[in-house]
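Q: Entry one of two.
A:
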Amino acid sequence: MAAPRARSRQPRQVDAGALGPEIGSFRLHLAAEGKAPKTIRLYTEAVAWFAAARLPGRASWEQAGPRDVQEWMAWLLGRYSDAYVSNQYRALQQFFKWLAAEEGLPDPMAGLRPPRVTVGLVPVFTGAELDRLQRACAGRGFAERRDAAIIAVLRASGIRLSELAGIRYQPGDPGRSDIDLWQREIIVRGKGGRPRIVKVSHDAARAVDRYLRARARHPQARQPWLWLGAGSRGPLTASGIYQAVARRGRQCGVQAWPHRFRHHFSHTWLERGGPEGDLMELNGWASPQMLARYGASARSARARRTYDRVMTGQP
């Protein structure tokens, strides 16, 4: 399976015209509900795009009907993945539900069904692939130690890319640092800014410790964020971390991107018999539906092992 790439899109028309004020109010509503900034941006951009593309010249949202939504979904499905279109559908659905509650307008999406999403198995890493990634980061240079630590933490914890990028580090002030290497614990902030504590392996803690020794000599060492760019560059963004992981993968011929480690961690946990409830806590999931999505490959592996035990008598 190829690594997901940034989708190349035509410049969008997102001028909602006379329908813009309600989108601004919807943005305020989402912020008051504690939604993550990324969620707020994605939802409001989806609504503005729909308004600009399907409702130009219309004076009010009351003029939007089910057919407008259906034709918009059909247009999107002809150009984008079903998962992406499903996200657009959910954004519009939340907007119209909010608008109906706020203004008493009819909900044009009431009774509509969301696009069907085909969920494929995300391949987990093989042992050989993980070994190659580790060797690709071999060396005592700053970038090598940093990338080795990033990959080790992703492998050991399965945290989200945004959570990894948001880890703070203040060696002289434990209260403002998210890392406790002795306890092998990291505080991360998930969706909606909710904090939780994740564990990492001894190998990951050792890789981070090696990176911290190199980081102490970095010109930007006083920055409050853990991951720094090479040379004199400041903190790495989520995009910068993504590029670093993908670059190491290309060096050793492994399709590597941060979210693949999340699937791999979940697969490994379940495949080894780890409790599902503990996995939900470690991964920061509020809904058990995520277990079905991330545990698909592990269920398949368990089923094959069960086959051997039942049908051939092998353990």
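Q: Entry two of two.
A:
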Amino acid sequence: MNAPLHLPQELHAPAAAPERDPTDSRRFELLQKKLRTQTGKAIVDFDMITEGDLVMVCMSGGKDSYTMLDILMHLRKIAPVKFDLIAVNLDQKQPGFPEHVLPEYFEKIGVPYKIVEQDTYSIVTEKIEPGKTTCSLCSRLRRGILYRTAKELGATKIALGHHQGDILETFLLNMFYGGTIKTMPAKLTADDGENVVIRPLAYCREQDIEKYAGKMGFPIIPCNLCGSQPNLQRQAMKEMLLTWQQKNPLWIKSMFTAMGNIKPSHMMDRGLFDFSKNEMREAEGAFTGDILFDKDESITLDGVNGAFAIQSEALKRAP
């Protein structure tokens, strides 16, 4: 009688199906093409990047900034103009911030980068009462440091990862809480008159960016490490837009289109349009640049001026 044949366990078990690459699908290809096309169109429409630019790509570690860097690296290879990129992350010394994640990612994809270490966390926690949102003051401090870094690097453009949703939310915030019609522009010259800020993802929807970042497997860093309470007003605008999107997606599309189709003669801004002569007024001085409305009850020292006074203190503490 023949002895039974004992095969190794791995020969008994059915072969495991190979892991499928989440980016290897027609649906992903269409999503990637859509985001790349929208970003390229925004860059062209607003003349964001020109020959010889050094673009400082601001990286927070969130889905938006990863997606922006990924698409800009692709466009750099195929664009008709030559430009360079440098990724910059501001390490604000928040508790638990994984300092290794972004440098390792930058090394992996082969992009030049700079990590700026600046303890704005302790400044913000010192100035803002516990339980209050710190986002407004934190963003102002961060902006000042990034502007300074851009000058040090010789960067001609500063790229931020704001998307269509951010722009719409800011538009509603300004209208409902600020009594003004303005939003995050796709391109602007900063108040210092030197730095030029661009938002390449201006035409991209947050839902698409979130799907793309998930498929790409970017090492996302959470944005709540500081323990700050969320900006409830901005969250309310986000929820309102989501409700409108569910009722009729065309409302959102039309609203976004309207921001690029303004008729000053059919508004009520007498400083912008001379109704006695029925013509546009000549601009008297520069338009307000990068001071965007972001209401925060904890900032009471003449609003923006108080924030910039604290920002000056942060810069003095810079190493």
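A: Comment on entry two: The beta strands are 54-58, 84-91, 113-117, 157-159, 187-189, 196-198, 273-274, 279-280. The CA atoms of residues 133 and 231 lie 6 Å apart.
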